[in-house]
Structure formats: structure tokens, C-alpha cells
């Protein structure tokens, strides 16, 4: 969709009119509003508003159930049975509650929709402060996840290659990351959430399939003869750092809040049928799928292998080869969809800045250059730092916990102002305390993981093979 420049105004003149609404004439006001509506209709988040509740379901599954589910048995080995089960259940309940709050707040102001996370933050904290609070944290999560998915997609392709062709010449991880990225150079040109629905649906199905394969294969293998359920670390500092790192791994598994408002923006809304009803229906279905994926994979994987489980359960499961190869390809398909789900809000931010701040003409060329540059950037970082998972467990701890656990609660207290000492008041403050602890503790555990990985990593050389 090409948007032509207004006939009566140059970009500079148009900018001055837009920034000084009190000085506009009626004709200029009409031109300005028409231009703004045309830009809104072009941007990815606002382009289509005809999604159904099931779109919400599989988009949220794709956003939530990432390849991180395969590391949950490893997190259990650093938490132990009691703490591990408690953390898994509490995280599921708390994040469902905070997600419900965000769905409710999407249309808290009559006649207005907060289509983006930062718009809700601006309403709660103020125009400028809201941007500074929300946008940096949201970008850390979304861009960070895209880089992690680049690394994990390359690793899954490499694992598939090594399983089906064990005697073949070893190929560096760098090349598999580039192969995985090549698909995104194409998929990133899909304009909006509606256009990636097919990819997202396939990704949601694959996430359910490979997590099911992980726990069924573990159950079929049975409990190892020398299984040990003591904590993985043997020293007190190791146990403490491992515990903190495991909290970050679990928090990493619930990152869907960063795109939930953008997903809800695709659903039509009227006073009689607000978007929160179909959105919440889809969220409930998504969280049931999340439970079906997370809990069996975590508990059965830890039950079968104890503290000997790898940080990716599919690495621990080497047989049957055909099934493990299939599961790794399912991970690749899922990551294709997950990358796009988290990239779409970033594309929206980039294109909004280019069009509204720098006055580029919206169109195919702008989208082609901007999105290709973004995919190239995430690919470059993934190739340079293929231990980025550990980096994200450190830096992401400052962003995952706020955007998922306590920012929604703070905004709820700020906007809805529940009665002091009421159940809602106590619940939100409890979630805030838990989120703050996660934000402080998980980076500490991530720092230890970074140090351990850097000791075994040589820059510009291949990441060490797991075999």
C-alpha cells in the first residue's frame, strides 16, 4: 500500500502542522487526520482487525511455548522436586493472572484501544515516562528472543543433520544459523499478524508435537538406573547460582505478555462485543496447551534422567534417531513462527519511527529494506555470540520479569486503583514482589552461566558440539 504525500503540504510543513494542533485550520486538521488514518491502516499492528478467538489461541501458543520448554527439565535439576514443582505452578498461575489484566486493560478507556504495550504504559505512567519504562524492556525481550531463536534454530538444524547423517563431515553452527535466517529474509516481508497466521498455526501445532515427543520418549526410556535427584551442583555457591539461573529459565518460558496487546489489536471490537471476550477465550485455550506442553515435559524429563539431563532434553534423548530428528525439525518449524510473532511488534516500531519521525514514504521498498536489515542484524549477533541464551538469561532477567510479572500489576494499581487491602490489592502487590525478586536473582544465575560458557568458547570458531 503506497501512501502519497499530501498535495498541499511538504513533509516539513506537514510536520509543523502535526506538532502544533492548535494552529491548524479545519482543512489542515482534516488532511492531518486522513494522513494519520492512512498510516495507521498501513502499520502491521493496525492493518487488519478481523481475527477470531482461535487466532488469539494459536498466536499466544506460538509466542509462549518456545524451545525453552526443552530446557525446563534442566531447570528442574537445579531446583529439585519441591521447589521445581512449586515454581512451575506459581509461574503458570501468576502469568495467567497478569495476562488477564492486560486483556482487560486493552480497552479500559471507552472508545480507545491500546494496541501496543507502550501505549498502555503511556496511559498509566505518562506520555514520555511510559515510553522509557516499557519500550526498552519490551525491545530487550523481543529482539533478544529473536536472536535466541536464530541460535536455537541453527542448533536444531545442526542436530537434525548430525542425527540423520552421523558419518557426514561436521558443518559449523554458523552455516546452520545462516540457513535458518534465510527463511526469515522471506517470511519477514509478510505485512502483518493476519498474513503470518498460517505460519503461526503450524508453529503452535509443532510446539505441542515436539514437547509431547520429549516427554513420551522420556517415559518410554524409563527411569535411568543411576538416576539422582539431588541438585545438579555439588557446592553451595553452585547450588545458589544454579537455583537463581533456573528461576530465570522458568521466567523465560512465559514471555507472551510482550505481544498480547498487539495480538488483541487484530480482533474486531464493538460496545456490545468487546475484543476482550474472544481474546480471553483464546488465552484460556492457549494456557491449557501451555500446561499440556510444560508440565509433562518438565516432570517426566526430570523423572527419567534426574540431574544428568542436558540443557536440551532432545540432546539427552538420542534414540530412536528418526524420532529425535523429526522432533528437531518440528522445533525449527516452530521457531520460524515464534520469530515472526516477536518480530512483528519490532517491525511496527521501526516502521512507525521511519514514517512518523523521519517522514519516509510508507511502501514496499521501505518495508523490504527495514525488515531485511533487522533480520540481518539478529543473524549477525547470533553468529557472533552463539551462547546468546546465557547472555539473555542475564540481561533478559531485567526485562522478562518486569514485562510479564509486575508491570501489568503496577499498571492495574495505577489505572483501576483497587481498594486498599482488598484481595486485588494484595494479589497485585504479591506479584510485584515476586517479579522484583526474579528481576534481581535471575541475572545473578545468568552471570555464572555466561562465565562457564565463555571459558569453553573461542570467538569466530564453531560452538563446541554436544557429542
TrEMBL record:
Keyword terms, alphabetized: Amino-acid transport, Cell membrane, Membrane, Transmembrane, Transmembrane helix, Transport
Pfam families in UniProt: Aa_trans
Domain of life from the UniProt record: Eukaryota
Localization per Swiss-Prot or TrEMBL: Cell membrane
PANTHER family given in the database record: OS05G0424000 PROTEIN-RELATED (PTHR48017)
Homology family: Belongs to the amino acid/polyamine transporter 2 family. Amino acid/auxin permease (AAAP) (TC 2.A.18.2) subfamily.
Protein name: Amino acid transporter transmembrane domain-containing protein
Taxon lineage: Eukaryota, Viridiplantae, Streptophyta, Embryophyta, Tracheophyta
Amino acid at each position: 500500500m503506497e501512501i502519497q504525500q499530501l498535495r498541499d503540504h511538504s513533509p516539513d510543513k506537514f510536520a509543523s502542522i502535526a506538532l502544533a494542533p492548535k494552529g491548524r485550520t479545519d482543512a489542515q486538521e482534516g488532511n492531518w487526520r486522513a494522513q494519520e488514518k492512512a498510516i495507521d491502516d498501513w502499520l502491521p499492528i493496525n492493518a487488519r482487525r478481523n481475527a477470531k478467538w482461535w487466532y488469539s489461541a494459536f498466536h499466544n501458543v506460538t509466542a509462549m511455548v518456545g524451545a525453552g520448554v526443552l530446557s525446563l527439565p534442566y531447570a528442574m535439576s537445579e531446583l529439585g522436586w519441591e521447589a521445581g514443582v512449586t515454581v512451575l505452578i506459581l509461574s503458570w498461575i501468576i502469568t495467567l493472572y497478569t495476562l488477564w489484566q492486560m486483556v482487560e486493560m486493552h480497552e479500559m478507556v471507552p472508545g480507545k484501544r491500546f494496541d501496543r504495550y507502550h501505549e498502555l504504559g503511556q496511559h498509566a505512567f505518562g506520555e514520555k515516562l511510559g515510553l522509557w519504562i516499557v519500550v526498552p524492556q519490551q525491545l530487550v525481550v523481543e529482539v533478544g528472543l529473536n536472536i535466541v531463536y536464530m541460535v536455537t534454530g541453527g542448533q536444531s538444524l545442526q542436530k537434525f543433520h548430525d542425527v540423520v547423517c552421523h558419518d557426514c563431515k561436521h558443518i559449523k553452527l554458523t552455516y546452520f544459523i545462516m540457513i535458518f535466517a534465510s527463511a526469515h529474509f522471506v517470511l519477514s516481508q509478510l505485512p502483518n499478524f493476519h498474513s503470518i497466521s498460517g505460519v503461526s498455526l503450524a508453529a503452535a501445532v509443532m510446539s505441542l508435537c515436539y514437547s509431547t515427543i520429549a516427554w513420551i520418549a522420556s517415559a518410554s526410556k524409563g527411569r535411568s538406573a543411576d538416576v539422582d535427584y539431588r541438585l545438579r551442583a555439588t557446592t553451595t555457591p553452585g547450588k545458589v547460582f544454579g537455583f537463581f539461573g533456573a528461576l530465570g529459565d522458568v521466567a523465560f518460558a512465559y514471555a507472551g505478555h510482550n505481544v498480547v496487546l498487539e495480538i488483541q489489536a487484530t480482533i474486531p471490537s464493538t460496545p456490545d462485543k468487546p475484543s476482550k471476550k474472544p481474546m480471553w477465550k483464546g488465552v484460556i485455550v492457549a494456557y491449557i496447551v501451555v500446561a499440556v506442553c510444560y508440565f509433562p515435559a518438565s516432570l517426566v524429563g526430570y523423572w527419567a534422567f534426574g540431574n544428568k539431563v542436558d540443557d536440551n532434553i532432545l540432546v539427552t534423548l538420542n534414540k530412536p534417531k528418526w524420532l529425535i530428528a523429526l522432533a528437531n525439525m518440528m522445533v525449527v518449524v516452530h521457531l520460524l513462527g515464534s520469530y515472526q510473532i516477536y518480530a512483528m511488534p519490532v517491525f511496527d516500531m521501526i516502521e512507525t519511527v521511519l514514517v512518523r519521525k523521519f517522514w519516509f514514504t510508507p511502501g514496499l521498498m521501505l518495508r523490504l529494506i527495514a525488515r531485511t536489515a533487522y533480520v540481518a542484524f539478529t543473524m549477525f549477533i547470533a553468529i557472533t555470540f552463539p551462547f546468546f541464551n546465557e547472555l539473555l538469561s542475564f540481561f533478559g532477567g531485567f526485562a522478562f520479569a518486569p514485562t510479564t510479572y509486575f508491570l501489568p500489576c503496577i499498571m492495574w494499581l495505577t489505572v483501576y486503583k483497587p481498594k486498599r487491602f482488598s484481595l486485588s490489592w494484595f494479589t497485585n502487590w504479591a506479584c510485584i514482589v515476586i517479579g522484583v525478586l526474579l528481576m534481581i536473582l535471575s541475572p545473578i544465575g545468568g552471570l555464572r552461566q555466561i562465565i562457564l560458557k565463555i571459558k569453553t568458547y573461542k570467538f569466530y570458531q564453531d560452538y563446541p558440539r554436544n557429542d
